[in-house]
Amino acid sequence: xxxxxxxxxxxxxxxxxxxxxxxxxxxxxxxxxxxxxxxxxxxxxxxxxxxxxxxxxxxxxxxxxxxxxxxxxxxxxxxxxxxxxxxxxxxxxxxxxxxxxxxxxxxxxxxxxxxxxxxxxxxxxxxxxxxxxxxxxxxxxxxxxxxxxxxxxxxxxxxxxxxxxxxxxxxxxxxxxxxxxxxxxxxxxxxxxxxxxxxxxxxxxxxxxxxxxxxxxxxxxxxxxxxxxxxxxxxxxxxxxxxxxxxxxxxxxxxxxxxxxxxxxxxxxxxxxxxxxxxxxxxxxxxxxxxxxxxxxxxxxxxxxxxxxxxxxxxxxxxxxxxxxxxxxxxxxxxx
Amino acid sequence: xxxxxxxxxxxxxxxxxxxxxxxxxxxxxxxxxxxxxxxxxxxxxxxxxxxxxxxxxxxxxxxxxxxxxxxxxxxxxxxxxxxxxxxxxxxxxxxxxxxxxxxxxxxxxxxxxxxxxxxxxxxxxxxxxxxxxxxxxxxxxxxxxxxxxxxxxxxxxxxxxxxxxxxxxxxxxxxxxxxxxxxxxxxxxxxxxxxxxxxxxxxxxxxxxxxxxxxxxxxxxxxxxxxxxxxxxxxxxxxxxxxxxxxxxxxxxxxxxxxxxxxxxxxxxxxxxxxxxxxxxxxxxxxxxxxx
Amino acid sequence: xxxxxxxxxxxxxxxxxxxxxxxxxxxxxxxxxxxxxxxxxxxxxxxxxxxxxxxxxxxxxxxxxxxxxxxxxxxxxxxxxxxxxxxxxxxxxxxxxxxxxxxxxxxxxxxxxxxxxxxxxxxxxxxxxxxxxxxxxxxxxxxxxxxxxxxxxxxxxxxxxxxxxxxxxxxxxxxxxxxxxxxxxxxxxxxxxxxxxxxxxxxxxxxxxxxxxxxxxxxxxxxxxxxxxxxxxxxxxxxxxxxxxxxxxxxxxxxxxxxxxxxxxxxxxxxxxxxx
Amino acid sequence: xxxxxxxxxxxxxxxxxxxxxxxxxxxxxxxxxxxxxxxxxxxxxxxxxxxxxxxxxxxxxxxxxxxxxxxxxxxxxxxxxxxxxxxxxxxxxxxxxxxxxxxxxxxxxxxxxxxxxxxxxxxxxxxxxxxxxxxxxxxxxxxxxxxxxxxxxxxxxxxxxxxxxxxxxxxxxxxxxxxxxxxxxxxxxxxxxxxxxxxxxxxxxxxxxxxxxxxxxxxxxxxxxxxxxxxxxxxxxxxxxxxxxxxxxxxxxxxxxxxxxxxxxxxxxxxxxxxxxxxxxxxxxxxxxxxxxxxxxxxxxxxxxxxxxxxxxxxxxxxxxxxxxxxxxxxx
Lengths: 336, 292, 276, 332
Fold this sequence. Notes:
The complex is a heterotetramer.
Chain B: H1 2-15, H2 20-25, H3 31-40, H4 47-59, H5 73-108, H6 113-127, H7 130-144, H8 157-187, H9 189-196, H10 201-230, H11 232-238, H12 244-254, H13 257-285
Chain C: H1 5-23, H2 25-28, H3 66-102, H4 104-119, H5 122-133, H6 137-147, H7 150-164, H8 167-174, H9 179-215, H10 227-234, H11 243-270
Helix pairs in contact in C: 1-3, 1-11, 3-4, 3-6, 3-7, 3-9, 5-6, 7-9, 8-9, 9-10, 9-11, 10-11
Chain D: E1 3-15, H1 20-24, E2 30-42, E3 46-50, H2 57-64, E4 72-77, E5 80-81, H3 87-96, E6 97-100, H4 114-123, H5 129-142, H6 148-151, H7 161-173, E7 179-183, H8 191-208, E8 211-216, H9 219-225, E9 228-233, E10 236-242, H10 243-248, H11 253-261, H12 301-305, E11 311-314, E12 317-319, H13 326-331
Parallel strand pairs in D: 3-8, 3-9, 6-7, 7-8
Antiparallel strand pairs in D: 1-2, 1-4, 4-5, 9-10, 10-12, 11-12
């Protein structure tokens, strides 16, 4: 694999809450190769959105990075002063927000929001900014005339295209997209995904794609990272991870995921629920729900272990992955 | 619609008591005297007739003649209104200038001691009865320090204390709205996006958060002006200011119903007008409401 | 204890103590609050020069014990506050819940009444009514109660609409529950915390309104010791004896502040956001 | 099999806010949320209703349960006209037809205990108090919350989304209904939990022989629970057939696009362009004739002039498209 554009090591993000400190992200190691689209998959509450915000440096007021390093293209972001870190934003790392009504400021026309970025952060003249904005709109499949519209005049899919155009404005090295297609209907979602795939190829984009949907990752991403309870449990090329998952949680997700083809036998749900991160378990965080649990799993956290080139999993039984995979396809395995 | 109902109400209000003529002629007036006064004032006609007649004339700005001042009501009001309106406008300006910055401050320091302190001070402001505040200000600044006049509006210094007292009605409400609007805005997706854009904090707060939070505040200040005018009676009495509120108070004390009717109606119409203005301003500021 | 809960506690203590004082007023007063003694007019409070421990808060222009009148005044303020919110709360909640639940024409009618009420200048109309009907405690309570329901109506309408949009109301409807059942079992319990907050807000406003009316001479009639009336009575003498208006004014402000703190604290702890 | 639900030309129009000009002209624009659908559900059948947001699928569910009044058309439940129900007959209907919602956290009254929430349909239908606990326990067993006493006195906020959705199912089943409408019952749930609820619904279908309508935007879910699938587009049913047929041999261009658009959890999937473009048209002024025509690559003159009828393309499989109608197929 090529060199990593972004490398994260042992990153932890802690929230101050009424019930005490919660490490929503706790010891994440992650590499994003240049030119890769990385899919960060996990279920609600696993810390994927917190991780994305920590990478951007836009955590909410009650959260902070308590540990770890984020290195982007050779620069240690955590070592930078706040002003320097801010100067990198949008130029080096940009952001596609969740497709909600309010991800774009409702009171400004798209042209104004484009100019804000292109002139204010990109030092373009107004005229140059308008030309660039029109090009960007064209690139994401929007009519440049719509630059004069307010966000509420767009449909959900168009709003998401506009947000993507905004994110690409300053040729960022890395784009972080947080559930960018989740709120969209399936046909519009596919259209946006296709647009992203084409842009990715044309512009050689490096992107992190946060989602709960394995199928979206399968469709779009070259690399996949699976997150569970604040940690990355499996990482590797998408084709490899989905076809030969090495972590029981990934296997569980794959088996629970309904498909349009194949037999309609019972799906295998993963019993139980994720651990309470106020009091995280020692050892593997999936142990309580894992059908293949062994005594060692509850005492020590498994170190990431390579199963194939650039493909690792954090599981004590990673060596038996093949056997476990076969067992995991049986629904009975998952019944407690 | 609302205006018409208020018209009926204000008419009904003044006619609800039957002893109108008695209150004018005095309690020991003879029956003929009362009948005579009733006839002179047209009070012996059926009520609906009286109402239509009155409403018709009111629509043309003719509220009849004051029982007590023996002057046209419209000219009485014309004489007293400018003072009240001027005070109201100054007061709402004071309220905005005080409430908005402190609301922003509290929101930016949400949950800290600054926020709690601003909140408690606002509540305390809300708790102080305005007539008492007026009296205390007179004692401190008028009598104690002798900086400002204790009554009347002889020059601009006379406006200072009454506007402060009037502004106190609106400050807590506007402060809370600014604060909650800013808190919501600062947590919103578009402010997070603005942060991700690497914009300076001042630009995030002013261009994105405040621009969104200000819309309801600006709109509500028109309505608050209506409340301030409605509450002007107390302040004008305390400071002995000859405005419409004072006129109404005098008239109520003496049962001068044409004046009361006219003032109540006037305040209602002003309020309805301000509510309309508030809607229009809101729509003009918020692109999502335009074209509806 | 968290910082944010301190105001709630302070408010609860102020309101609680005032309520106790109001209830036990006849037992607490050191003197007959109505007994005049023209020989002992305007005696200063005990802590000032010329004061005595006989009359802790001094005496008023008719030589009546100020502390006793203040204590009885608490009773009047609390009575006004509680009685008016019961009346206005009932009117406003009924209107608001009906409008919010049924929507359509019922709602349009409710909103019309509310906007009519808002257009009426509160103090002027209250003054006029009290003037015409004649001032008494009952009249003041009725007048304020009949005028001060709009906040209840607006808020209960808004939250009723919100609750009715939730699926459990549809579920109850699909389960064959009657309208009355849904309103009383599903809607009211889920909006009551909003109403409690509004009740504190309106109680504070009602107390201030009574004080204003009494101050303007058309509220609680003398010789009843309403705090507003005490300020009005002392007004002409305030340049010489400022404490005559300071004492009842502070009492009024502290009570209303207490109610506001309580309401604000409840708003936070009950999660009822009624700022907008 | 006998018909349980039979709807003909069922219609629901909602008034929308008017512009000043429309008001002056006396126009009353409506959203044609459901615009004349015919629908028959047999006893014991599980039918899936699939469509994008704005297709009117949720409104159909509400119409079938009489939660909203139809603007036109007829609807029969068990042979009786639903519009004529009132009083006791309406109460019996309410007991027979139940509803499961999308968001479990919104669909249980937060002030109620689980016991009280599940009991609600019983309280209103005069089930004696003594019988209630037994019935509740039975319903809770059905949804695999067998140790009922562990949950009975908890409040909704103490349960997870998956558990709460089971409670909602139990509440729907406690009155032993004959018809169930489930509106996006799993779309708020995480994948690992979703599978459990889907399995449960399959199990209930087989065990209770329940007649059910599952509303979903996601064909993959419907596939696991329903033998028959309806596809809706802008207030109309465009395709109706056995689920496996609809998925493997979709007849309507819209269904074809819908199926193609679903991403698969595999990397070796088709990434070719979709046959249809653009987004959903406006339900206030939809295109004339076939509503898909402005997005459809195969549209021809007749599509603008004539509303395509829902006609059989294979045994038990119908589609509303001029291309597949027998007349055209014969000509081609």
